[in-house]
Amino acid sequence: MTCSRYALIVGILIAALAAPAWGDYAYVGGGDKFAKVLVEFDDGAIYAFGVSFSDPSTTGVGLMDLIEAGTTLTTQREYYPAYGWIIEGISYMGHTSIDDYYGPNPNAWWRYWVMDPPDGWEMPWDYGASGRTAADGCADAWVYGHNTAPRLPGDANNDLAVNGGDLALVGGNWFQTGKTWSEGDFNGDGAVDGGDLALMGGNWMFGSPPSPAPLPEPGAAVLLVAAVPWLGRRRAG
Ligand SMILES: [Ca+2]
Ligand SMILES: [Ca+2]
Predict the structure, then answer these.
(1) Which of 31, 52, 100, 178 is deepest in the core (most CB within 10 A)?
(2) Looking at the chain, which residues constitute the CATH 2.170.130.30 domain(s)?
């Protein structure tokens, strides 16, 4: 057990120092309402956005407008009279996925997901992003190429926030194999290790409105290391 705890500390330190991904997510906009938007590209890269807004008529497309205004993300859109604006392509951080209905892959198109807590993710079939009214606390997601609901790397307990609750799950399964997402295996190799911790680091502290200042790397490292004794107690208990 001592060895495992030592490995956890070393792993956290390595991830904290080596991961270039601290604060990989972005907070944009301004206002008293807060929504989360996930974007998952064809290559599996997932980005999270926290969007603050005040206009009660803000739509799903409006959330993307705010993200485009506040980040380097860009979209390709087409207008259909029956549906309104359809987002057919998204580019961000070197990733690009564009609808290709007539290509060799029949799944090559963006899925639009919505979440209105306490309900979970659903893929609406009776309205699109133009017809979606974004409420405070809601979440949207754009997922390319498959019909599985999105998940945020690092979010073991699937509450769309990445924090100490998730870190405790990772710590409780540290260096164990045969584990699932909800046990801390975010890259799907069955093991809970530094690779998963690095993914967690990319989204560390995402999810809490209002927009917090991004944690600097030393601050994040200190915060994670500070959690280690508590994790140790949980493991021993
Ligand atoms: Ca969580
Ligand atoms: Ca793993």
Answers:
(1) 52
(2) 26-144
